Each structure stands twice: as structure tokens, then as C-alpha cells.
Amino acid sequence: MRVIICGAGQVGFGIAERLAAEQNDVSVIDTAPELIRSVRDTLDVRGFVGHGAHPDVLATAGAQQADMIIAVTLYDEVNMVACQVAHSLFDVPTKIARIRSQSYLQTHYMDLFSRDHLPIDVIISPEVEVGEMVLRRIALPGAADVVRFADGNVAMVAIECLEECPVINTPLAQLSELFPDLPSTVVGVSRNGRLFIPHSADQLIAGDMAYVVTTKEQVRRTLGLFGHEETEATRIVIAGGGNIGLYVANALERKQSRTKVKIIESTRERAVAAADELRRTVVLHGSALDQKLLLEADIQDADLMVTLTNDDQVNILSSVMAKRLGCKSNLVLINNPTYHEFAKTLGIDAHVNPRAVTISKVLQHVRRGRIRAVHNIQRGAAEVIEAEALETSPLVGPLLRDIEFPDGMRIGAVYRDGVVIKPSGSLRIKPKDRVVIFAMENAVRHVEQMFRVSLEFF
Description:
Layout: E1 2-6, H1 10-21, E2 25-30, H2 33-42, E3 46-49, H3 55-60, E4 68-71, H4 76-90, E5 94-98, E6 122-124, H5 126-139, E7 145-149, E8 154-160, H6 172-178, E9 185-191, E10 194-196, E11 209-215, H7 219-225, E12 235-239, H8 243-254, E13 260-265, H9 268-277, E14 282-285, H10 291-296, E15 304-307, H11 312-324, E16 329-333, H12 337-340, E17 350-352, H13 354-366, E18 371-377, E19 382-388, E20 409-416, E21 419-421, E22 434-440, H14 444-450
Parallel strand pairs: 1-2, 1-4, 2-3, 4-5, 5-6, 12-13, 12-15, 13-14, 15-16, 16-17
Antiparallel strand pairs: 7-8, 8-11, 9-10, 9-11, 18-19, 19-22, 20-21, 20-22
Helix pairs in contact: 1-13, 5-8, 5-13
């Protein structure tokens, strides 16, 4: 696939890295020569210094032959114009744009992005995507990661196995026998930096990160089975009153719950705007690194500190300081992937990676076949994929036990006619079933092939 990426920042670089690793033909455009130099030196892609919305720059980058343009610069307007130019002058089939301003995304204005106006096929709003991820993590404090599939009816939960975890040192097949009514399947395990798909005879050990697919109704029970029975936070302090912090605070207010929220925002103008918009949330102006301000926010009595500023260092340091002052737990937004590896050693309980969220959204539209959703695991080491089975799919018809699956993939759940089915050897996949699959990096292409329309069908 020939792809043009406008914007070589952290998100653009991450997308280029992932697509180039899959042997796609990638061109990256950015106005900053140092970013393009880094892209050229690090990745197997072409880099062009220039304005991503300018026709001559797009032409030089190969827009005439491009299958897709992904506009992820810092500016909404540049992203929108780049898609318009790609459509009008070069007839690029698929156009993806990152739109950050919520003003453009209001439902009564969504016709703006139709083919007759601004022809953008896919809109990515990182603030909304990350905000929803934060809200899921707040609602399920025992989970290290939570992603929903099949219209929210299926969940993939990453769960850390602690020393007191009841299910460790027990063969996975035995767990199924002990809890026959629990529709949960362990599809992946990360152990000592190695990610693998477990067999039924394998056992979980302390320190493992287990990736479990289950139904939305059984997520809490599954977490409890793994020894995670943390209660949802009712006193939350948020550092950062920008788009994400405001989105999270608004959503928590709409829930009409007994949760008490306080926001710390360093920019006075933004703090005033947040205070005007929010009704029950207390907004404090100042730095989240100011110990006196944290104490003024009653951090010592808080259940959770959520740090959502644009500065990784502020997010990390303020969350660590909050725990030292008595806050029970923290959830940290970290953009730089190099910080993820030692976040745990610093006293960070959980972190959110906005780049991974955006890349997952893009991959959903890069994948061939009837792919409905994709979630990136550990910087591309694996993916959780929701795909729709077609009549021509090799999965349709035979019993699952009779199908020779390629190494590196495991079915976690099947969604059929509003019902979630736990996979077993006696199950037959039917056309239009939505199948949630955990696939290692080397198996993703096999999954795509399984869910593509066969030429023989015609």
C-alpha cells in the first residue's frame, strides 16, 4: 500500500514506523527539516520537507499513486486542506485526518466532512479517544488496559498477575473447568518482556501481564478472579484542564455519580474557561508540581491522581509526588515511549499512551479484509482484531478444532446476533459473525487473508 503521512511528530512518526515495518510504501511530509531528517535516518521511508497541504509537495511525495493520505499535523486546518487537495487534485481513495478542535466535531456539523464538502473518510480525535480510554481505566481500576469490541459487548482486559493472584500456578484448561460459566479466555501473556500466546497446559505466574477477552458483563468478575477488586475512585484530582482533562471531567459530571473531581490547570485563561464550563468540578489555577497546591486540592485524601498535561515530565513527577503525599493511586498520560519501560519503577500504577490509541485507530483502516476494529499491543508486538466473517472465509463452516490456524493467533470471542460466544473446539463460525482475535505481529497478515473476499466467490 502506498501511504502519505503529513506530520512527522510523535503520532506521525509512530504511524510511519508501524506501516514501514509491514513493508508498505510510506512517504512522510513535514515543515521541520530536523523531524524529516530523523524519519529518514531511523525508518525505511521517504521524507519530504514542505507543507503537507501544498499540491506541489503532495505531488513530489507521490500523491498520484497514493492509496491513502494520513494527515496528523498539529493543525486541524492543515489536515483538512491536505485531504481536500489529495481528493480534488490526485483522487486519493482514502483520506484520514486528525481533528482536535471539538468545534468541528459537534454532531450537527458532521456533514462538513461529507464527500461533497470536505471529503475526509476517517476523522481521528485523539482527545476523545484518549479521554474514553482514561474513563474506562477509572471505571475499572484493576485493569492495566481496557478496550471494547463488538459495539461494546466484548472487552479485552490486560491484568497484572500479583503474588496473591488466585489463578497463578494453575493450568489454563483447569481454570475453564473450575469456572465453566465464565466466558473469559486468556489470549496472550507478557512475561519478562516476552509476549506469547499461551496453550491450555500453560500456567500464569506472578509478574505476568495476562490479556483476557470476556463479555462486558463479566469484566469485573474476571478482574476479581485475578485478585483485582479495587473499588472505583470517588475522589479524583486531574492535572491538566486542556481538551482531554475537560472531556474527562465533563463525562464524570454527566454520570451524576458521587465522584468529586478537582482540576489543576497551569494556564489562567484555560482554568477560567474550565471553571465556566464545569458545574460541580473545582478548578484550581497553578502548577501540578506545587506541593502546596496539591495539598490545597486535598491530594492526601484523594483516591486517584490523573495527570493529563502536555508535558510528560510534569505528568510523571506530579503523579509520583501525589502518591508520596498520600494519594492512593495514579494514572498518567505518557507520550514518550521510552518512559513506558520504567514507569512502574517510579511508582506509577497505570499509564495511557495516546500515540498507541491513535495508531490503533489508523491501523483499523489500513488492514485489508472486513476489519472492524484494531488495538495495538506493546508497540506492534501484537494486535487485537475484530473482523467480520464472510461466506468465503476459511473459518466459516468447519469446527474450530478442525481448522489449522497459523501460529501466533487465538480467537478470544465470537459475537453473533447480539450474543457473545466463548470459542471452543465444537464451535462453527457462521457468515456475519464478528470474531475477536489476538494476533502476534507475524500472524496479522494471515488474519487479514482469512477475512478478505475471495475472488473465487465471484
